[in-house]
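DM from R.C. (forwarded with permission)

"hey, sorry to bug you on a friday — could you get me a structure for this? deadline for the figure draft is monday and I only need the backbone to look sensible"
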Amino acid sequence: MVMVGSKESGNEATWSNVETSEVLSKIASIREPVFLALTDCNRSTVFSTCPAAKEGGGLMTVNGKAREEKTVNGFHKVTDEDDFDPSAPPPFKIAEIRAAIPKHCWVKDPLRSLSYVIRDILVVFGLAAAAVRFDNWVVWPFYWIAQGTMFWALFVLGHDCGHGSFSDNPKLNSVFGHLLHSFILVPYHGWRISHRTHHQNHGHVENDESWVPLSEKLYKTLHVSTKFLRFKVPFPLFAYPFYLWSRSPGKKGSHFNPNSGLFLPSERRYVLTSTMCWCIMIALLLCASIVVGPVQLLKVYGVPYLVFVMWLDIVTYLHHHGHEQKLPLVPRQGMELLKGRAYNPAKPVLGKYYREPKKSGPFPFHLFRYLMRSIRQDHFVSDIGDIVFYQTDAKLSGFSLSKMD
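My reply, with the result:
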């Protein structure tokens, strides 16, 4: 799946079932650099491409010093990593990217999408049947990891239903979105709507919806136990169910309540439908616990569900906190400034807009190092400033709960 998005407009485009090379070859014709997010069911990464272009030269000023500089297509080409400014806006508009995508990439194939659903469901039930058949403590841990990852795959398929990339039929998207998300205890419409809000406000200190940054003022009001649970592994890795019930600190509402401030009045009936589907799944799980016993249900469903939650929290946390570099965040007072700069073609962009992830082999173990470091260091953001970055609470970092009291 290929996703192209714009922070400035909150719009995005998603294409499923297309070859990456088809998109990149067309994108290469754009005069400016391009960001693409390439995702599939179990991984998500950022890929970038720099189109071939004629190079020129000139002088520029960096930190008050003039030095020779190369340009690409009239835009500054900075080769010094120290000059990269991650808060600088991109020099292109989403419309330019959309226009460069071949028309056939916009065609969604519902039969192929359904084949992914059937395949993943067969794998889920096949894994469960095999685990029950062998039923020994050597097999169960491998089953939990594999099945939890498959639950994560089901979530991503439901996610694509919510984005409309599953098919062009909203009813078909809704039916399979409910089947997939309800099975893993996610309220489909409730989450879909809040996820839309997230994409429209990604990186905004106040209006973002997922892993919302804590302002310094709000952070200081939190009880020490709340800070400990949010910033001490493994607790943040199991935050998703609590987020569904009560959102992030400083925000009110619930993904299950149709009267929540998350939703418009016209959306309440959709939220109610999803909450009812969630309740039906809970009832089915209770019936299953009576039939097979609570311990067996925990082994077959409960532990994989926790592994799924862990995967979801790890992936989304890293999306919002970066890895080798801290991500810039925009307070309310800086949003219009950023929008104005982003759409001003007269101002050249300085910095490296090409971020290719480090190759890791089949298992991205290096990401856990970034995860641990970020949880240890990224605690709150300043209450002032047009562009802000995460800061560290020295009292929290490296100390236990007992030492903080």
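R.C.: lifesaver. Residues 1-21, 27-80, 333-352, 400-405 have pLDDT under 50 and may be disordered.
me: no worries. The chain has 14 helices and nine strands.
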